[in-house]
Amino acid sequence: MQKVNYYIFRFFIGIFSIFSFWQLYVFSDILCFFIYRVAGYRKKIVFENLRNSFPEKQEDEISMIANGFYHHLTDVITESMKAFSMPEETVIQRYRYIGMDALNALFRQNQSVICVAGHFNNWEWGGIASDQQMLHTPVGFYQPLSNKYTDAYVRRRRVRGKSKLASVLRTSETFRQYLGSPHIFYMIADQSPSSPRLSYWVNFLNQDTATLHGPEKYARLYNYPVFYADVQKVKRGYYTVSFIPLTLDPSSTQHGEITGMFMHKLEEKIRENPSSYLWSHRRWKLKR
After folding, report:
1. Which of 28, 41, 49, 118 could be 74's S-S partner, Cβ–Cβ 3.0 to 4.6 Å?
2. 287 inside domain
3. CA distance to 56, 110, 251, per residue, from 208 (Å)
4. pTM of the predicted model, to two decimals?
């Protein structure tokens, strides 16, 4: 059954590979209509998250953000599928890294760094775009898929060149493996954690929020500088990524401080453009 599902997955990748970008976004608009207006995909969760995050907004504003979110969601889905067949040069043209001076200076000091990001705008193209735009060797952490054939394919196609993917189940081993040479460890760090006991708790979007402990743990353990990856949409299908330093000396920070800096920076960006966040995930399912 795993092979059957894998071939279905590859069939859809083949379909997306022949789409031009204007066709891709026509398909995205059609998909948006069906999952939002017809199926109501996670509509209850989306509106609950929005109302709790923005209690000051009127219902018409909430509906406007939700509508923008579903258009954003289907764009990310279709862009992610298109990425499997996109040439690296095309991804780089559409996903530009800017403001690299601080990172490059650390590379020349043989210093590894941790880069934290959230599910904001397009987070899927980074593994492909990093190879030629980074001096550091990029390492992205991902959740392995249950289908071993699909997982192996994704591992091959979601990164290019010197970039690497590592399982979140092997985070400790991965950091130890790459000691001594300058790497940048990408960590999408706004998921709901599996363990309330290990979580840091912060006020995020007006809610008591459990956060992952990993980025701060490894930053403090290895004293790796921490940067926030600020992904901004220039226009449909085009993004810039700038790298904002959160701390260059994690050893001087207090317990939970790095996590707080990341979540506050992410909240700042969400408030600037709320439709570009992933409102359909169960971000606040854990209670203190």
Report:
1. 28
2. no
3. 17, 38, 26
4. 0.94
